[in-house]
Specification:
single chain; 7 helices; elongated; 79% helix; mainly alpha
């Protein structure tokens, strides 16, 4: 594969990941979230855009590496969980911040977590590096599940 083609594949994944990130930008936490009781270990608001920017870059790199390493006939099988988890990722911000549906957001987060695990498994079959690049994302989403559950609970959910 030519360097130009490889770069175009990376840029394509980066654009797709950025499109998923737009749901978070379009649904900022706002006053509603500021007024909620939050659990211990809730990071300062500034931590979220820093963490997510880093994670989105790692996600694009992982998808790029997996695309390059996967046999052409197997690419869809390997990559569809990644695309599905991007959709679940984008939906979470809409459910939680946009619709204030903390319980629905938690269900989406559980689906997201499972899709990330599946993606890591599929990527590991073609590129250990691609799989490892997603481990910080899985860790952050696991932490986000704690924040989601606790915030829901502290504010009358459950």
């Amino acid at each position: 594969m030519t360097p130009t083609r490889s770069l175009m594949i990376f840029l394509g994944w980066l654009v797709l990941v950025m499109l998923a990130a737009l749901s978070g930008i379009a649904t900022p936490p706002g006053e509603w979230y500021a007024g909620l009781a939050k659990p211990p270990l809730t990071p300062p608001n500034l931590a979220f855009p820093i963490a997510w920017s880093t994670l989105y870059l790692l996600m694009a790199l992982a998808a790029w590496r997996a695309t390059l390493a996967a046999p052409p006939a197997a690419r869809w099988h390997i990559l569809w969980p990644f695309v599905a988890q991007l959709a679940a990722n984008a939906l979470w911000s809409i459910l939680f911040f946009g619709l204030h549906g903390m319980g629905l957001a938690l269900l989406d987060l559980l689906l997201l977590w499972g899709l990330i695990v599946l993606t890591i498994r599929r990527f590991a079959g073609v590129s250990h590096l691609a799989a490892w690049l997603l481990v910080p994302y899985l860790a952050w989403v696991s932490f986000a599940a704690y924040l989601n559950v606790a915030t829901w609970w502290f504010n009358g959910g459950g």
